[in-house]
Amino acid sequence: MTDTFDIQLIESCKKGDRVAQKVVYDRLASRMFPVCIRYVGDRSVAEDILQEGFITLFTRIGTYKGEGSFEGWARRIFVTTALMHLRKKDALRMSDDLEAARGLKTDTTTQMENIGYKELMDMVMSLPTGFRTIFNMYAVEGYSHKEIAEILGISEVTSRTQFSRARAVLQKKIKERENV
Predict the structure, then answer these.
(1) Burial 98-131 (b: 16+ CB within 10 A, else e)
(2) What number is the average pLDDT over the span 136-159?
(3) What's 4's DSSP letter?
(4) Is 86 exposed, middle or buried (0-12, 13-18, 19+ CB in 10 A)?
(5) pTM of the entire predicted model
C-alpha cells in the first residue's frame, strides 16, 4: 500500500476492532475535515459530516478490496457524505449561482504568485455553494466533468459552466485583492 494504512489495521477494522478504528480515525480526521469544510463552508456542519463520514466508512469498510490507496477510498466516502448533505439541503440548486455570476468572464492572465493557500481556500469557501461544489470536485478532487454530472445529476455542460464561472469569480476576487 502507498498510504499510511497497513492491511492488518484495515482487517482489524473490518472485524470491528475499536482500537484499530480509533487509529484509523486519528490518522484520517485531520485530512478529511478540510475536505468536508471545503464543500459545506461551515465548521460545525463540517464536523457533523466528518462524523457521518466515519460512520459510513466503518460500516462499509468491508467493501474495501485493497485496490488503490485506502485514503483515496475513504476520501470518496467523505466527499459523497458532504454532497449528500448539500443535496438534502437543496444547496446544489444551480440557477441561483448562475444569476450571481452573469457577465463574469474568465481572465486566464491573473497572477497568483502573491496569494497563499489559506487565502485562496478562504476565497473558494466564499463561493456560492454550487460553484464551490463543482470547483472542489473538479480542481481539488480531480473528478471529470462527466463524473461530476453523473454524481450531481446535472449535464456535463452545466458542470463545465459552473466551473468556468467559479474560476471567473475567484479571478475577480484575486484581482480585487491585488488592487487593494
Answers:
(1) beebeeeeeeeebeeeeeeeeeeeebbeebbbbb
(2) 90
(3) S
(4) buried
(5) 0.69
